[in-house]
Q: What sequence folds into this?
C-alpha cells in the first residue's frame, strides 16, 4: 500500500465530471467540478485537466454545435468525452502504453462512461435534477462520489484499476446477453411473466427474468432493460450474491480470472479504493452529512427465507431500521418504481411496481410479495426446472474453431464466445481485433451522420501478423466480429467460415451474397 | 282422483314458462292414445311405442323424437297382451300372451307361430330380442333364461341354450344389453348377463345392500327400485334404498361389480333418466329433479334440485291448438287439459333413457336438458365448461355457450389463472375430439391424430372411427375424459368395454352421429359398432320413407354438423379473441396474457394454432407500443413464423424499425424471396436486394423498381451498376424501354456532374 502504487494508478487513469454551466467566473472554477478521480490530486491539476477538456469542447462546438468533441488522441494519453446530459461532461483520460496492457478502444471506454451514468440516473435521477435540487452541489457530489467509487471498485484487479482494454474486444458493454430458449419454455416463461405482473393487481408493472446471468424475458423498454439487467448481473444474480466479488456478467469473469487470482481481490473493492484515494471530502466539496444510498455497495444483498432478495442499502436514505424497498427511475416512463427481486435457484425475477400505485409502500410491497408466493411459485419452479434442463452450461454458446462476438444493435443483445475460450487467443489477434473494431466504430459513427435510416453493409477481413483471420461484418444493424486462429490462409476459407457460422447461428443474417 | 291431485300440484309441478329449471319437457308431446287401446308398451330395442287394440298394433317411432309422427299399424289376432316387442330387424313381432306363451308374427308373410313353456311349473316373466350372434330372442322365466334362435324360415324357435336359476324378477335395458336377474327371498341377490353382438358375458353374482327398517327386517327389493343406466358408455346399476333414503350405484365391469357410492334421495318414489349422459334422478314425490354428471369421482349434483318444466305449452284452456288439430288426425283434437299438464303425475312412466310416458293421457314426452339454465346457475366456470364440453346431443348449443362463457370471463377481466383453466379445458377437449376424429372440421385444424378420417356421416365412418380408436385407446387416460378428471381404474373399464353397449348408435344415428358417444367410453369392440350400424339402417327401413324428410331436415341443421362441443383454435380466434378485442378498448395486456395462456395450452396439446391469432397478438402489442416484448415473442418463435405474421410485423413496424426488420428477417428465413427482395428495394436497400436476388434467383421483381430506387438515391455509380447488372443477367434487357430510359437518365446525371 505504498505511495508508489498510488502514483502509477494516478498516472494511468483520470476521470472527471464537470458542469459547464457552473463556475464560469474567475475564482469560482472549482464549482464546476462535480467529480474527480483520483480525488487526492491537487486542485490545480484537476483544474488544468478540466480546463483542457473545456477548451476543446468550446472550440469544437464552433464547428459542430450538436456533438462536440468525442476524443483527443494525444501522444501519451487518450481523452474520451461523453456528454450524458446537456452541458454535463464526463471525461476519462487513460495513458497509452505499448508494452503494458494499455491499448484502448475509445468506444469501449465511452461505454463505461455511459454505463455509470445510466446506472446513476436509474438510482438517483439525472445529475441536473440533483443540481437543481441543491444548487450548492454538495448533494450531487456526495452522490456521485460514493456511486462512482463503488462502480470503479468492480474494475479493481488486485490494487489496480483495469478498464476494458483490447482483451475485451469480444465483448460489448451496455448490451444484454440472452438465454436461448425453446418455444415451449418461452411460452411457460411468458405465462409466468403475466402471472407475475398481475400480482400487483391492476397496476401496470414491469418485470425482468434472468437465468443465471442471462436474460430470459423483459417487459421493459430496451434502455431500461439494459440498466436493470446490468445491475442485476452486478449485484443480484446468484453468482453476484455468492461470490461477493463483482463480475461484469459472465463475460467479464474470464478476464478477471485471467488477470488475477480471485483470492487476491479484497472482499470489498470499494473500500480498497477509498483507502487508496482516501476520500478527501472537503477537497472535493463533498459533504458526508448527506445520507446517500449506495446501491453498488458490495455484499449488501442477501436472499431472504422467502426467496426475496433483501438489502439495507436504502435504509441510509430513509433512515429506518426495517429494510426499505429499493426504488429506481425508469428512463422511458420517468416513473419511480419499487424493485422487488425474487430468486429461486438460478432464476432471478425482478418485479417493478410504480411507487405511485402503492400508498403505504412497505405494506403494499409485502402484499405483492405474498401474492407472488401464492400465485407464481409453482410456475417459477416449473420454469426454473425447464430452463435448467435446457441450459447448456457455461460453454453453451461456444462454437469450436470460432472466437466471435455477435451484436444485434436493434435489440442491444450480444452473444460471444465464452470468456475462457477467448483467453486462448494470442495478444496479436486481440490487438488486431481491437484495431479493427476501432475502424468499424468510425465507419458506424460516420454513417450515423449521413442518415439515421441508412445502414451500410460492411465487411473487413484482416490477416493478422500471427496469420490469424480477423473479420468484421456489419449488415443492417447486426455486427459480427470474429477471430480465426490456426485457420487456412486463403480468404475464401475465411469467407466460407463466416458463411457457415451465419447460416448456422444467425439465421443467415450475414450471408447476403 | 286426477283432478283432485291437479289442483294442489299445479302450482308446484307446473309453474309456467318463467320458472327456474334445468330440465324440461317440450310441448307438444307425442300423442299416442288410440280408442280401444289396451295399454301402452315400450319396445326399447327399437325405440318404439306400441299400443295394441283388439285387432291391431299401433306403433310410433320415438327416435328421433317427433311429436307429430303418425303411427303405423299392423293387424294382429285378438287376445291378451302382456308384453310386445319387435325383433331388432323389425320383421318379426312377438307378443307375450300369457305366462306360458309367446306368439310370433312374421310381418312380411303374415305367418305366425307360438312358443310355449315346456313345463307348467315355470312361467315366463318376459322376453327380449338380442343382437347376440348365437341367439335372437331370450325368454326370462322363473327358472332361468332360455336363449332361442329363429330358424331360417322364421317359422319356429330353436333353443340354443338354457341357463338355470330361480328368478324373482328381472330388469333389462336394450341400451346396456344387460339383463339383471333377481333371486333370493329378498330379491337382492343378482346375476347379470350382457348379451351383445360381442357375445355373452356373465357378470359375477353380487348382492345389493339394503337398510332394514324397524318394521321389516327383511325388506324385499322390487324391480321398480333397480335401474340400469348407461352413462358415457359405462353401465351402472342404480338401486333405490327407500329406508336409508339413498340411491346406491354399482358399476359393471367385465369381471366385477363395484359399488360406486350413493346419492341421497328426497322422495320415496324415485325415477331415473339419462339425457345426453347426464343422470337425472327424479324425486317424484318432491316433484324435483337432481342432475348428476357421473364422469369423475365427484358425486356432487350439478345444481340444486329444481322442478321439471313443461315448456312451450299454450296456456291451458285456450282455444284448441292449431298444430295438434291439424296433424294428429288419429287423435282427438284436444289441447292439454289440466290433468295432462301435471308434471310427475301418477300416470307417468319413465322410459329408458329419456322418455316419459303419461299412460293415463296417452302422451309421450321427451326430456331435455336446459344447457343455458345449467350453465347460468353455476359460477364455477371451469366445471361448467367441462360439463358443456361433454354434451353431445346439443353440441352446437353447448359450443355456443362455451364461447359465450369464455368471452364473458375475458371481458370481465377475471384473473388470468382462472381464464387459463377455462382455456385449458376447451383446448384439451378439442384435442381429444381430434384424437377420436369427432371434430368435423378436423381437416382444417391439422393435427397428427391416430384417426385421420374426419367423420362425415353417421353410418360408415362409425366403424372406421372405432377401429382407429382401438389403436389409440390403449395409451391415454385423457382419452376417456373429455376435459375432465377420470380417476377410476382405467384398465378395468377398458377391458370391460365390450360389455358397454353400442346402443348409442341406434338411439339417434341421424342426430348425434353416434361416434362421439362411443368415444367417451373408449370402446374397443369393433364388431359391436358395425352391428350398431347395421341396426340403424334396418331401423330406417322399418320406419319407412315417411321419416326421411325429417331426417334430412335434421342433418341439414347446423347442429348436426357440430357433433361435439369442441372448439378449434380458429373458432377461438373468430368467436372469442377477435370479438373480445373489439369490445375491449384500451390496454391490451390482459388479452395478450390470455392469448399466451391459450398458446401454452395449445402447445401442451400439440395443436397447431392458426396464424391469425399470432397476427392479433402482434397488433395488440404494437398498439401499446410494447415492441420489446413483441421482439421477444418473435425471436423465441412463440409466434410461429409465417407470411401473415411477417406481413403484420412489417405493417406494425411502420412506427418501429426494429419490428419491421424482424418482419423482413422472417421473410428471408421463410425463403419468401420475392417479398423479401421487393421490401428491400422499397426500403432503399437496392444493392443488397440485387445481391440477394442474384443469389436466390429471384427474377419476378421488375428491374424498373431497382432502377428507380438507384435513381432516387442520386448516385450515378450505383445507377450504372444496377443498369449493368440487368444488362448482364437479363437477356434482352437492352431492348426494353427501361434500359433506354435509364441510360438517358444516367447520361444526364453524368453530364451534370462533369458540368
A:
Amino acid at each position: 500500500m505504498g505511495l508508489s502504487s498510488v502514483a502509477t494508478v494516478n498516472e494511468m487513469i483520470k476521470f472527471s465530471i464537470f458542469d459547464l454551466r457552473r463556475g464560469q467566473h474567475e475564482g469560482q472554477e472549482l464549482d464546476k467540478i462535480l467529480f474527480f478521480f483520483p480525488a487526492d490530486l491537487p486542485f490545480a491539476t484537476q483544474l488544468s485537466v478540466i480546463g483542457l477538456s473545456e477548451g476543446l469542447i468550446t472550440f469544437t462546438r464552433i464547428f459542430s454545435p450538436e456533438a462536440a468533441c468525442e476524443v483527443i488522441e494525444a501522444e501519451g494519453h487518450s481523452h474520451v468525452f461523453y456528454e450524458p446530459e446537456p452541458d454535463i461532461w464526463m471525461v476519462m483520460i487513460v495513458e497509452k502504453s505499448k508494452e503494458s496492457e494499455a491499448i484502448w478502444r475509445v468506444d469501449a471506454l465511452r461505454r463505461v462512461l455511459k454505463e455509470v451514468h445510466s446506472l446513476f440516473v436509474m438510482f438517483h435521477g439525472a445529475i441536473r435534477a440533483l443540481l437543481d435540487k441543491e444548487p450548492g452541489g454538495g448533494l450531487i457530489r456526495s452522490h456521485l462520489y460514493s456511486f462512482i467509487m463503488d462502480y470503479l471498485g468492480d474494475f479493481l484487479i488486485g490494487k489496480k484499476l483495469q478498464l476494458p482494454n483490447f482483451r475485451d474486444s469480444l465483448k460489448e458493454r451496455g448490451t444484454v446477453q440472452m438465454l436461448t430458449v425453446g418455444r415451449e419454455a418461452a411460452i411457460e416463461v411468458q405465462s409466468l411473466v403475466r402471472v407475475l405482473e398481475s400480482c400487483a393487481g391492476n397496476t401496470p408493472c414491469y418485470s425482468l427474468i434472468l437465468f443465471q446471468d442471462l436474460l430470459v424475458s423483459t417487459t421493459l423498454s430496451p434502455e431500461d432493460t439494459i440498466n436493470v439487467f446490468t445491475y442485476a448481473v452486478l449485484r443480484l444474480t446468484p453468482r453476484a450474491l455468492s461470490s461477493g466479488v463483482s463480475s461484469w456478467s459472465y463475460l467479464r469473469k474470464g478476464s478477471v480470472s485471467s488477470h488475477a487470482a480471485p483470492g487476491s481481490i479484497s472482499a470489498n473493492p470499494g473500500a480498497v479504493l477509498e483507502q487508496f484515494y482516501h476520500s478527501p471530502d472537503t477537497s472535493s466539496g463533498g459533504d458526508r452529512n448527506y445520507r446517500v444510498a449506495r446501491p453498488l455497495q458490495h455484499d449488501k444483498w442477501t436472499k431472504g427465507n422467502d426467496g426475496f432478495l433483501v438489502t439495507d442499502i436504502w435504509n441510509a436514505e430513509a433512515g429506518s431500521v426495517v429494510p426499505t424497498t429499493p426504488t429506481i427511475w425508469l428512463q422511458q416512463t420517468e416513473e419511480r418504481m419499487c424493485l422487488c427481486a425474487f430468486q429461486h435457484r438460478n432464476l432471478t425475477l425482478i418485479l417493478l411496481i410504480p411507487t405511485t400505485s402503492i400508498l403505504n409502500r412497505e405494506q403494499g410491497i409485502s402484499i405483492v410479495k405474498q401474492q407472488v408466493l401464492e400465485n407464481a411459485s409453482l410456475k417459477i419452479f416449473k420454469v426454473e426446472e425447464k430452463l435448467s434442463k435446457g441450459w447448456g452450461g457455461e460453454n453453451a454458446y461456444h462454437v469450436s474453431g470460432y472466437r466471435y462476438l455477435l451484436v444485434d444493435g436493434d435489440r442491444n443483445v450480444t452473444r460471444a464466445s465464452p470468456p475462457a475460450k477467448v483467453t486462448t487467443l494470442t495478444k496479436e489477434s486481440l490487438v488486431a481485433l481491437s484495431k479493427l473494431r476501432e475502424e468499424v466504430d468510425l465507419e458506424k459513427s460516420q454513417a450515423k451522420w449521413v442518415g439515421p435510416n441508412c445502414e451500410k453493409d460492411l465487411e473487413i477481413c484482416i490477416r493478422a501478423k500471427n496469420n490469424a483471420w480477423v473479420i468484421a461484418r456489419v449488415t443492417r444493424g447486426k455486427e459480427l466480429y470474429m477471430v480465426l486462429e490456426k485457420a487456412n490462409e486463403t480468404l475464401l476459407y475465411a469467407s466460407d467460415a463466416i458463411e457457415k457460422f451465419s447460416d448456422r447461428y444467425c439465421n443467415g443474417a450475414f450471408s447476403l451474397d | 282422483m286426477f283432478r283432485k291431485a291437479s289442483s294442489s300440484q299445479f302450482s308446484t309441478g307446473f309453474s309456467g314458462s318463467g320458472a327456474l329449471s334445468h330440465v324440461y319437457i317440450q310441448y307438444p308431446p307425442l300423442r299416442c292414445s288410440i280408442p280401444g287401446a289396451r295399454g301402452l308398451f315400450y319396445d326399447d330395442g327399437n325405440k318404439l311405442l306400441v299400443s295394441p287394440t283388439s285387432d291391431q298394433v299401433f306403433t310410433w317411432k320415438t327416435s328421433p323424437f317427433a311429436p307429430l309422427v303418425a303411427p303405423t299399424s299392423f293387424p294382429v289376432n285378438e287376445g291378451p297382451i302382456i308384453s310386445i316387442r319387435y325383433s331388432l330387424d323389425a320383421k318379426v313381432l312377438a307378443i307375450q300372451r300369457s305366462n306360458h306363451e309367446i306368439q310370433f308374427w312374421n310381418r312380411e308373410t303374415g305367418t305366425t307361430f307360438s312358443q310355449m313353456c315346456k313345463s307348467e311349473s315355470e312361467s315366463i316373466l318376459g322376453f327380449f330380442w338380442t343382437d347376440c350372434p348365437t341367439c335372437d330372442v331370450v325368454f326370462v322365466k322363473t327358472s332361468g333364461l332360455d336363449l332361442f334362435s329363429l330358424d331360417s324360415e322364421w317359422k319356429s324357435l330353436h333353443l340354443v341354450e338354457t341357463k338355470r336359476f330361480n328368478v324373482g324378477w328381472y330388469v333389462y335395458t336394450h341400451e346396456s344389453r344387460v339383463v339383471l336377474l333377481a333371486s333370493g327371498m329378498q330379491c337382492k341377490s343378482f346375476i347379470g348377463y350382457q348379451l351383445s353382438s360381442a357375445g355373452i358375458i356373465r357378470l359375477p353374482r353380487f348382492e345389493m345392500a339394503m337398510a332394514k327398517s324397524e318394521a321389516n327386517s327383511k325388506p324385499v327389493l322390487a324391480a321398480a327400485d333397480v335401474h340400469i343406466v348407461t352413462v358415457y358408455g359405462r353401465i351402472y346399476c342404480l338401486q333405490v334404498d327407500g329406508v336409508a333414503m339413498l340411491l346406491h350405484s354399482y358399476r359393471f365391469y367385465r369381471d366385477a361389480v363395484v359399488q360406486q357410492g350413493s346419492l341421497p334421495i328426497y322422495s320415496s318414489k324415485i325415477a331415473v333418466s339419462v339425457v345426453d349422459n347426464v343422470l337425472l334422478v327424479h324425486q317424484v314425490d318432491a316433484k324435483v329433479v337432481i342432475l348428476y354428471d357421473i364422469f369423475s369421482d365427484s358425486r356432487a349434483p350439478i345444481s340444486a334440485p329444481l322442478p321439471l318444466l313443461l315448456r312451450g305449452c299454450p296456456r291451458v284452456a285456450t282455444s284448441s291448438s292449431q298444430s295438434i288439430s291439424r296433424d294428429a288426425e288419429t287423435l282427438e283434437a284436444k289441447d292439454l287439459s289440466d290433468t295432462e299438464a301435471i308434471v310427475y303425475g301418477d300416470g307417468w312412466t319413465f322410459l329408458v333413457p329419456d322418455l316419459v310416458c303419461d299412460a293415463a293421457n296417452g302422451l309421450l314426452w321427451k326430456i331435455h336438458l336446459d344447457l343455458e339454465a345449467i350453465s347460468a346457475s353455476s359460477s364455477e366456470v371451469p366445471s361448467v365448461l367441462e360439463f358443456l364440453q361433454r354434451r353431445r346431443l346439443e353440441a352446437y348449443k353447448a359450443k355456443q355457450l362455451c364461447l359465450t362463457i369464455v368471452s364473458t370471463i375475458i371481458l370481465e377481466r377475471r384473473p388470468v389463472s382462472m381464464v387459463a383453466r377455462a382455456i385449458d379445458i376447451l383446448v384439451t377437449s378439442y384435442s381429444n375430439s381430434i384424437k377420436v376424429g369427432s371434430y368435423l372440421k378436423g381437416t382444417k385444424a391439422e393435427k397428427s391424430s391416430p384417426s385421420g378420417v374426419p367423420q362425415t356421416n353417421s353410418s360408415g365412418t362409425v366403424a372406421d372411427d372405432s377401429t382407429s380408436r382401438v389403436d389409440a385407446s390403449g395409451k391415454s387416460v385423457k382419452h376417456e375424459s373429455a376435459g375432465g378428471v377420470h380417476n377410476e381404474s382405467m384398465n378395468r373399464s377398458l377391458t370391460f368395454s365390450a360389455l358397454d353397449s353400442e346402443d348409442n348408435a341406434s338411439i339417434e344415428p341421424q342426430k348425434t352421429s353416434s361416434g362421439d358417444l362411443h368415444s367417451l367410453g373408449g370402446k374397443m369392440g369393433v364388431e359391436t359398432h358395425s352391428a350398431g350400424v347395421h341396426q340403424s339402417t334396418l331401423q330406417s327401413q322399418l320406419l319407412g320413407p315417411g321419416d326421411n324428410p325429417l331426417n334430412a331436415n335434421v342433418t341439414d341443421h347446423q347442429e348436426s354438423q357440430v357433433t361435439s362441443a369442441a372448439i378449434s383454435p380458429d373458432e377461438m380466434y373468430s368467436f372469442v379473441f377477435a370479438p373480445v378485442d373489439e369490445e375491449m378498448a384500451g390496454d391490451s395486456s390482459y388479452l395478450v396474457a390470455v392469448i399466451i395462456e391459450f398458446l401454452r395450452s395449445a402447445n401442451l396439446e400439440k395443436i397447431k394454432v392458426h396464424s391469425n391469432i399470432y397476427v392479433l397478438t402482434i397488433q395488440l402489442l404494437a398498439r401499446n407500443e410494447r415492441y420489446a416484448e413483441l421482439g421477444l415473442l418473435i425471436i423465441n418463435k412463440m409466434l410461429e413464423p409465417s407470411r401473415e405474421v411477417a406481413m403484420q410485423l412489417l405493417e406494425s413496424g411502420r412506427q418501429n424499425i426494429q419490428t419491421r426488420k424482424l418482419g423482413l428477417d422472417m421473410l428471408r428465413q421463410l425463403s419468401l424471396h420475392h417479398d423479401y427482395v421487393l421490401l428491400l428495394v422499397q426500403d432503399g436497400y437496392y444493392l443488397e436486394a440485387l445481391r440477394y436476388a442474384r443469389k436466390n434467383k429471384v427474377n419476378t421483381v421488375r428491374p424498373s423498381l431497382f432502377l428507380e430506387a438507384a435513381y432516387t438515391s442520386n448516385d450515378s455509380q450505383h445507377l450504372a451498376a444496377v443498369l449493368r447488372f440487368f444488362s448482364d443477367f437479363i437477356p434482352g434487357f437492352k431492348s426494353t424501354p427501361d434500359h433506354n430510359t435509364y441510360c438517358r437518365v444516367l447520361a444526364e446525371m453524368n453530364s451534370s456532374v462533369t458540368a
Q: What stands out?
A: Chain B touches chain A through 36 residues (CB under 8 Å).
